[in-house]
Amino acid sequence: MSDMHLIALPRLQTAIAQVVRGFGSSPDEVAAVTGNLIEANLTGHDSHGIGMLPRYADAYLQGGLTPNAAVSTVLDGGSLLRLDGNRGFGQVIGAQAMALGIARAQAHGSCIVALGNSHHLGRIGAWAEQAAAAGLVSLHFVNVISRAIVAPHGGGDARFGTNPFCAGVPLTGRPPVILDFATSMIAQGKTRVAMNKGEQVPPDCLIDDHGQPTREPRFTVVPPFGALLTFGDHKGFGMALMCELLGGALAAGMTQRDGDASQKRVLNGMFSVLVDPAALADRASFEAEALAFIAWVRASPVREGFDAIHIAGEPERAWRAQRTAAGVPVDATTWQEILAAAGRLGVDAAAVQAAAF
Prior knowledge:
Blueprint: E1 4-7, H1 9-21, H2 27-42, H3 53-62, E2 72-76, E3 80-84, H4 90-108, E4 110-119, H5 125-133, E5 137-145, E6 165-171, E7 174-181, H6 188-197, E8 206-207, E9 213-214, E10 227-228, H7 234-250, E11 267-275, H8 277-280, H9 283-298, H10 314-326, E12 328-331, H11 332-344, H12 349-356
Parallel strand pairs: 3-4
Antiparallel strand pairs: 1-12, 2-3, 4-11, 5-6, 5-11, 6-7, 8-9, 8-10
Helix pairs in contact: 1-2, 1-12, 3-11, 11-12
């Protein structure tokens, strides 16, 4: 099992910003990418955190990631926007796309945002949180253009990505409800984390290169490749299919249709629906009903083996509080991969190491 580092948050922020500067990013972009990646680690989603930097470095060096790119408008229909991410950092493109959609939803009561050609959008919950902070409900269907990693229900090899779905509901004076999940049993990044830690994945999540069940995470990280399975069997497959049709075919005009494993870029399409609850119903009544239902759910007796009934978004907030105070755990293998990526970007790896420790 790989050793673990526990890095204080301020030191980690300084170290990772040094790595991101290696892309030639503007100061604002360095701050956005660094902040978004570390926020994923803080919320317990190490799969979408700083461990993505080696993949980003390879994508950049191949020409599949364009630093300092901005979102451009392809179609402006008022409350209907079609946007191109120009292969820019998703941490920037996602925020820009949501800002445009939020402004339109506030003006018109709702907005549909079709975003295509963005590099990896990271933790999709960040974009639901952005919308919720503006008082908006949001839905997000996302596809992935990269090496296929998930098998269709009943299939023996990978045919699409982890295709996340996300929804956010704001509640005045309270944290929002944020539901964010991959349509695979686990996110692909979690298999990378498990492999780097020397751990196995849970049962019934993965098949090997012969279509047989396995718990070895290497089958989604290094060849010969196997595939992740969808959650809930056909239900997760159906959700993944809709993410591909809406986030891919409709929003981005691109779906996953080849088995090329040589490209390191990770492109996302995202079909987002943003709604102002006050434009649809009496906001106070809506929130009162929502809170009453949440209270009803929480009143269920807690079963053996569980500590409480957690509402979507609460585990992330608990992780954020813990890791902000105690530091961010990073396994030694992932950290060495980040230092190697720094070197490929022309950044002094020893300086990054010194900044972190």
